[in-house]
């Protein structure tokens, strides 16, 4: 990483809590994404069984938090992934709460969280 990029990232790191979500938010902010706006945040939930993934996806799309959910099988691992799409401002506390909420529902279907990400609309 070039020195200028390290300095910019270090500036952003000081603005966010020192945890995985804080680091990811700092990297996204350093890339020039406006974190004060609404974005589509994708939360990734993993399942060993396709039926569990499909049941979770069916339940979660009836939830007011989630706008859409896609079920896919990972080619490399064979694990089933439900990508839940949530429109929200990517604020640290809200992200953590959304992750915990989705995982609490996924746990009842033998699923577990695998993080989140967002696509900058300019890159889409």
From TrEMBL:
InterPro entries cross-referenced by the UniProt entry: RraB-like_sf, RraB_dom
Transmembrane segments: none
Lineage: Bacteria, Pseudomonadati, Pseudomonadota, Gammaproteobacteria, Alteromonadales
Superkingdom: Bacteria
Domain Regulator of ribonuclease activity B: 19-117
Protein's recorded name: Regulator of ribonuclease activity B domain-containing protein
